[in-house]
Amino acid sequence: MRITRRRLLIASAASAAASILASRAFAAPPPLEQKETYKVGFAQTESNNPWRLAQTKSMQDEAAARGWQLVYTDAAGSAAKQVADVNSMIAQGVDLIFLAPREEKPLIPAIMAAKGAGIPVILLDRNVDQSLAKPGEDYITFIGSDFVEEGRRIAEYLVGMGGDKKTIIQLEGTTGSSPANDRKRGFEEFLADHSDYRVVASQSGDFARDRGRQVAETLLQAHPDANVIYAHNDEMAIGAIAALEAAGRTAGRDDCLVFSIDGGREAVQLVVDGKIEAVVECNPRFGPKAFDTALAYAAGEEIPPVIINPDQIYTPENAADLIDTAY
């Protein structure tokens, strides 16, 4: 019997809907059997900057130390590839998946697919849209930093400095990602009570150094009066410094303040050098906490929906003493 393309599409849609419904059939993530060792997946979003490389190394080192098999994938900045990576891990029969979702919404189908296959998921570093997938129901927990607080701390530091540097360019992270959304929100919510501070331009630099440089060059040309640059990560901050210098300007208190989030060694050294004013840490060393959480879940312990990593702030007063703590 001839099967039309329309019937195939209807059947495919019905199958997908059934899979989602099946994954919603129980209001808890799938269980994790207690075993001596595990085969776990780590779906990394990209490997194009020092923060991601440090996070990956931490996960690989921890797996090796515990004797666990780690199935590692790199989505190369593509949400679609990351969904395919998770589906591949499901097909390989991993016991659990650690997922660093590139964006909040596109990775929901991957989480639901894992749940439907009976594989629990722990989110690392970036969260997902919780109106579509819920911790303690669709995935175990989110482990990471408080991104809203990171942005708020930068704004609080800037306002606390006083002075006349109040015209701000903001270099946002990857559009649609939780750190970009939240670092912007925390920063702007704090400044809402300080109306003399103005964000005159805000654009995504995609957490990348060269893209941050390009965006900063364009925004500095459009707003030559800008005297503060707030970058959502170190890579874009370093790119912004290059843009300032190419424009004949200086990064630092004498001209344009630069602020960043992450806490890589290169950026912390720039705090020591006076080119970055302050960096709020976002610790990439997830391995120990991630694997400990998986074991606690297997043991039946109650896991909170959010596990926040403690982060410090590097300033001109402490950066030289704390640089050895930077990744």
From TrEMBL:
<feature type="signal peptide">
    <location>
        <begin position="1"/>
        <end position="27"/>
    </location>
</feature>
<dbReference type="InterPro" id="IPR025997">
    <property type="entry name" value="SBP_2_dom"/>
</dbReference>
<comment type="similarity">
    <text>Belongs to the bacterial solute-binding protein 2 family.</text>
</comment>
<dbReference type="Pfam" id="PF13407">
    <property type="entry name" value="Peripla_BP_4"/>
</dbReference>
<dbReference type="InterPro" id="IPR028082">
    <property type="entry name" value="Peripla_BP_I"/>
</dbReference>
<feature type="domain" description="Periplasmic binding protein">
    <location>
        <begin position="40"/>
        <end position="302"/>
    </location>
</feature>
<keyword id="KW-0732">Signal</keyword>
<dbReference type="InterPro" id="IPR006311">
    <property type="entry name" value="TAT_signal"/>
</dbReference>
<protein>
    <submittedName>
        <fullName>ABC transporter substrate-binding protein</fullName>
    </submittedName>
</protein>
